[in-house]
């Protein structure tokens, strides 16, 4: 079988390409850049911009192909409010629409598509199952939710589409917003938390994300949505405390009054000086944890990586990159969601 990975040179895509190649599968990586081709040297690379239907049409797609949409604009770099719609929608929504329409013309029926946990918005029930109400808090989450509505429409026309809603994805090659945290710790500066830090914070490993897509293909591409996150995430205070200890830092964790911090960040966002995206800080002190048991039941997928280990590994990579003199650039190339 031929596997076509749109956005396949990205963070999750290159790990999925590698996994499929190791399984003896034929892989086409269709992306606008090929910065990581050394990870998947036996794959065929095709230059493709998902916002341009003409370039998608050049990808050799047939009815029997397995398609994955891994292309996305993320929450980093931070955008001012007025620019968010035009930043997210061309890739996240229009790109998805272009891919699905190309699949339809080719007769391809099977798609694995990544959305985000940001479709949920504020926590209503804990932990969040896939049936949790959806109410995005910004353009990023809304652009992804709109692709889920698009998928529902095409499912009715006969396509099989598996949707994945991951938490913050981290792993080798992606630092992004974590760079700010690591800098504070390296400089022995206080690390402010939004709220008390008693609520958990959940990550998902890039390797677990790639494994989920692989298992969805093996399971026949169920017409379902699945949460992707770690198991038993620790409280923010413990997660950061362990990291500070590991780093040998003198940084202190500062709990704050979450309401006041969020209103301050709201004000800065309103005057086009955002420090964080509202979709990040508005839920930072909530019990925002995804229930991932459905993936285990349907796909046999169980996350293998713990939050504590993932964060420490990311910090160690940051230190290594900093020592090599290119940490800042590396973190900006692969932004964390």
How do you describe this structure in short?
The protein has about 325 residues and is α/β, with parallel strands linked by helices. It is about 40% helix and about 15% strand. It has helices at about 10-20, 55, 85-105, 140-155, 180-185, 205-220, 235-245, 260-270, 280, 295-300, 305-325, 325-335; strands at about 1-5, 25-30, 45, 65-70, 110-115, 160-165, 170, 190, 205, 225-230, 255.
Question: Can you walk me through this structure?
Answer:
With 337 residues, the protein is α/β, with parallel strands linked by helices. It contains 12 helices and 11 strands. The protein is 42% helix and 13% strand. Helix 1 links the parallel strand 1 and strand 2. The chain is globular.
